[in-house]
Design brief:
single chain; alpha+beta; Fructose-1,6-Bisphosphatase, Chain A, domain 1; D-Maltodextrin-Binding Protein, domain 2; seven-stranded mixed sheet; five-stranded mixed sheet; globular
Amino acid sequence: MQSVVETASEAARRGGSVLRDKFGRVDVQEKAPSDLVTDADFASQAAIEELLTSRFPSYAFLGEESTEADRESALASGRPLWVVDPLDGTANFVHRLLSFSVSIALVEDGVPTLGVVYDPMLDVLYVGDSDGRVTKNNKPIRNSGCKDLSKAMTCCSFRPGVTRQDTEVGQFLCVLERSQSMRRLGSAALNLCYLAEGCLDSYWATSVKAWDVAAGFRIASNAGVQFTSLDRSEFDVWNPRFVASSTPELQSSMLECLDPS
């Protein structure tokens, strides 16, 4: 397993190097209204994919910028699957906000067994492996242990184009009123890493994709973070509508706020 960890870490750093080189000078397009993609996304993914597939040719590869046909083929292969977001936090990157990351997960039988998230501007690498270890730059980390929503630093991710009539806004207001602080930071992968190291206490998302959170799920889970789908079922990496909190007590309070009924 160590060679897998080392390769994923090297690939994340390679993708991060591309992002640093292109920071502040990118070509930007819209995949959909307010949903941005840049040449840096594609260049980072190409660098990551080349390394991962050359080292582990028997594994499949699914990236955010892969074609739909390639994604479907990778999912149908039944092989261990690299799930990659080459630039999580593209809007931040475009606006030169220093909160974006590279996210690489290895998913086996539908479960992320390895997660690597790299913050290229701070040179910080988070790793969660299949043996339950979780580190930040090779040092162990743990969640905050916060139990009380009134003392919690919370965070959320909204879909592009959210409107005031949407359910997410009511959920946001409930958590805003009851928590100590609320943040919307722009990188789901980093949000989960911050949860793992205790900088955040709870985080929820309603419209992220597997490549946004697969690696962060492994990292945060290894740090003792609780995950629940918003319908109170088990977390599903392929349908990640979820809340994650440092403790069961805080998770229960968050689920009360986020209940749409």
